[in-house]
Amino acid sequence: MSDPKAPQASAGGQFTPSEGRPFIADAGPLIALARVDQLHLLRHLFGGGMIPPAVHQEIAIGSGRPGAAAIGLALEAGWIRVVPLADEAQAASLARIVDSGEAQAIALGLQQDARFLLIDDAKGRRAARRAGLPLVGVAGILLAAKAQGRLAAVSPVMEELASVGYRLSARLMDGVRRSAGE
Questions:
Q1: DSSP letter string over 40-74?
Q2: C-alpha angle 161/67/126, rounded to 5°?
Q3: Are 22 and 112 in contact (CB under 8 A)?
Q4: For residue 40, with 0-12 CB atoms within 10 Å meaning exposed, 13-18 middle and 19 or more buried, which class applies?
Q5: Tens digits of per-residue pLDDT, 124-139?
Q6: What CA–CA distance (Å, rounded) separates 127 from 124?
């Protein structure tokens, strides 16, 4: 029997886990979504994802840090996996301009032909864009969730993100609200 909450294939070409193209995530967006109880949106919208070892280390599963336990459960369930880099040279080169988690996430995204890289850090986004990776941030996840009926509204989630210290600019929040029709 299939899980009614699992991602479903659609005629519109929506991603399903069977397509084999994972998302790759940086630590910040994963932790932010976990802190506001919305990590499940990634699984429901996009299926499986991967993180590199440096991101896994930044999350510090078992540390008691906010969000770490929820991400730990996703790892245990297997819909997020820690995947080592096939070639460390890309990440080492990128680590000169971004932190090691972002560098490894970008390198893993390139090595795995990722559906997209989930990243919000501006410097990391610039580096990933230059590398040719498709990018999505937390705001994009919220908009996709609303479009697919998984969220009634994005505004309350963005406000909750702000209340836990996740930085989304006022300009971005206004744009997301407009895009969501709120």
A1: HHHHHHH--EEE-HHHHHHHTTTS--TTHHHHHHH
A2: 60
A3: yes
A4: middle
A5: 999 999 999 999 999 9
A6: 5
CA-based nearest residue to 93, from 103, 78, 108: 103
Domain locations along the chain:
19-151
Instruction: Provide the whole-model pTM.
Output: 0.86
**88, containing H or E segment:** helix 88-94
> Could you give the CA distance from residue 152 to residue 163 in angstroms, rounded to a whole number?
19
Count of beta carbons in the 10 Å neighbourhood of residue 44: 17
d(CA 106, CA 119): 9
Write down the residue that tokens 């909450």 correspond to: 5
What's the pLDDT tens digit per position in 89-111? Answer: 999 999 999 999 999 999 999 99
Q: What is the CATH code of the structural domain delimited by 19-151?
A: 3.40.50.1010
E-assigned strands of 11-162?
A: 23-25, 49-51, 80-82, 116-118, 135-136
How would residue 20 be classed by pLDDT, with cut points 50, 70 and 90?
low
Look at residue 119 and give its three-state secondary structure. coil
Q: What angle, rounded to 10 degrees, do the helices at 27-35 and 138-147 form? A: 50
- Give the side-chain half-sphere CA count within 13 A for 56: 17
